[in-house]
From TrEMBL:
<dbReference type="GO" id="GO:0051287">
    <property type="term" value="F:NAD binding"/>
</dbReference>
<keyword id="KW-0963">Cytoplasm</keyword>
<keyword id="KW-0464">Manganese</keyword>
<feature type="site" description="Important for catalysis">
    <location>
        <position position="142"/>
    </location>
</feature>
<keyword id="KW-0028">Amino-acid biosynthesis</keyword>
<dbReference type="InterPro" id="IPR004429">
    <property type="entry name" value="Isopropylmalate_DH"/>
</dbReference>
<feature type="site" description="Important for catalysis">
    <location>
        <position position="193"/>
    </location>
</feature>
<dbReference type="InterPro" id="IPR019818">
    <property type="entry name" value="IsoCit/isopropylmalate_DH_CS"/>
</dbReference>
<feature type="binding site">
    <location>
        <position position="226"/>
    </location>
    <ligand>
        <name>substrate</name>
    </ligand>
</feature>
<protein>
    <recommendedName>
        <fullName>3-isopropylmalate dehydrogenase</fullName>
        <ecNumber>1.1.1.85</ecNumber>
    </recommendedName>
</protein>
<feature type="binding site">
    <location>
        <position position="254"/>
    </location>
    <ligand>
        <name>Mg(2+)</name>
    </ligand>
</feature>
<dbReference type="GO" id="GO:0000287">
    <property type="term" value="F:magnesium ion binding"/>
</dbReference>
<keyword id="KW-0432">Leucine biosynthesis</keyword>
<feature type="binding site">
    <location>
        <position position="107"/>
    </location>
    <ligand>
        <name>substrate</name>
    </ligand>
</feature>
<comment type="pathway">
    <text>Amino-acid biosynthesis; L-leucine biosynthesis; L-leucine from 3-methyl-2-oxobutanoate: step 3/4.</text>
</comment>
<feature type="binding site">
    <location>
        <position position="250"/>
    </location>
    <ligand>
        <name>Mg(2+)</name>
    </ligand>
</feature>
<feature type="binding site">
    <location>
        <begin position="290"/>
        <end position="302"/>
    </location>
    <ligand>
        <name>NAD(+)</name>
    </ligand>
</feature>
Length: 369
């Protein structure tokens, strides 16, 4: 039997509540399909800080590096506001991203039919939307040096951030985008600002060269990132996969996400490079939302973002495509049945708690299998 090691890092706030619903699905997959998941547990964020004074222990970091995939809940909250910068809850996530070298951040924007009418855009603009934003996560202006505030001595200061990309960084992120496109509608749109940025000139050049060398079967287009922002709200269905840098990706993925609904619905994946021997990628899956301290412990959290993150895990880490499709269909089906958590509640629908929503999706999954 195959064995698949999953490290669960629930974190703080609603993280553990949302993760509890994924545990139900892992149990169902093991029981009904002999999926062979071995679950390991770890602490991250405030939960880790409270236990041992660090945002993630070396031991749990080792587990993350050894696991086939990591499922991450959420971290942070006012309780740890006064905590030192290096051990604050968010530092746990940053350490995981850095040590696992998770350079590719995948943010899908999928419009569930049952929620199309509640989008801020017209129903026909978002209905059936299914796009994937691939954001470079470990380079660019958030990390480039110099990065500082200098005192000019004349009563003025200067804040400096540096946008830097090397060829290999653009090659590997565009490679991920092209490979994912092949499993979808086979189209990639690369977004940069080559009209005003040298890093943008290089970005466009390297994406085009990578395409020509290895992925000529995929349709490639280029768009200026600001125009891309406009097109995302004008006619998002023109896109399949969008590949872009860290800064533009941060903004464009948030814009795309909001086309489709609540923060409580949005999953993400972060992938590393394939192991040269096994081909396996390090990967971490997490909802886009934070720890939502305002609703934590009340059974109000929408677990769909966490469950949809697990569906991405099945798809991208374990190639369990049928199961991932079925789990996503179960989410859509429960929404079609009028089931809602408080954050997506509307007239005539049935309001469920976090656990009831998890149960409904689990039950629906079983009826579909
Ligand atoms: P947040 O995402 O935690 O919450 C924003 C709003 O959305 C809140 O009103 C919350 O109740 C609601 N919300 C979020 N997820 C929901 C869900 N699953 N179901 C229903 N409603 C949901 O962002 P906020 O309030 O800015 O940050 C709270 C804490 O989370 C902070 O400490 C922040 O640093 C941290 N954070 C952590 C992230 C992570 O772990 N990756 C990401 C973003 C924020
Ligand atoms: Mg952001």
């Amino acid at each position: 039997m195959v064995t698949r090691t999953l490290l669960l890092l629930p974190g703080d706030g609603i993280g553990p509540e949302a993760m509890a619903e994924v545990r139900k699905l892992i149990a169902v997959l093991n029981d009904t399909q002999s999926a062979g998941f071995t679950v390991q547990e770890g602490l991250v964020g405030g939960a880790a800080y409270d236990a041992h004074g660090q945002a993630i222990s070396d031991e749990d970091m080792e587990k993350a590096l050894a696991a086939d995939a990591v499922l991450f809940g959420a971290v942070g909250g006012p309780k740890w506001d006064g905590v030192a910068y290096e051990v604050r809850p968010e530092a746990g996530l940053l350490r995981l991203r850095k040590e696992m070298e998770l350079f590719a951040n995948l943010r899908p924007a999928i419009c569930y039919p049952a929620l199309a009418a509640s989008s801020s855009l017209k129903q026909e603009v978002v209905e059936g939307l299914d796009i994937l934003i691939v954001r470079e996560l470990t380079g660019g202006v958030y990390f480039g040096e110099p990065k500082e505030i200098i005192d000019l001595g004349n009563g003025q200061k200067r804040g400096i951030d540096t946008q830097v990309y090397d060829t290999f960084e653009i090659e590997r992120i565009s490679g991920v985008a092209f490979e994912l496109a092949r499993t979808r509608a086979n189209k990639v749109c690369s977004m940069e600002k080559h009209n005003v940025m040298k890093s943008g000139v290089l970005w466009k050049e390297v994406v085009a060269a990578t395409h020509k060398a290895n992925y000529a079967d995929v349709e490639l287009t280029h768009m200026l990132a600001d125009a891309g922002g406009m097109q995302l709200v004008r006619w998002p269905k023109q896109f399949d996969v969008i590949v872009t840098d860290n800064l533009f990706g941060d903004m464009l993925s948030d814009v795309a996400a909001m086309l489709t609904g609540s923060l409580g619905m949005l999953p993400s994946a972060s992938l590393g490079a394939p192991d040269p021997m096994s081909g396996a990628r390090k990967a971490l899956y997490e909802p886009v939302h934070g720890s939502a301290p305002d609703i934590a412990g009340k059974g109000l959290a929408n677990p769909i973002a966490m469950i949809a993150s697990f569906a991405m895990c099945l798809r991208y880490s374990f190639n369990m495509v049928a199961e991932a499709d079925r789990l996503e269909a179960a989410i859509a089906g429960v929404l079609d049945d009028g089931m809602r958590t408080a954050d997506i509640m509307s007239d005539g629908m049935t309001q469920l708690s976090t656990a009831e929503m998890g149960d409904a999706i689990t039950a629906k999954y079983l009826t579909l299998s």
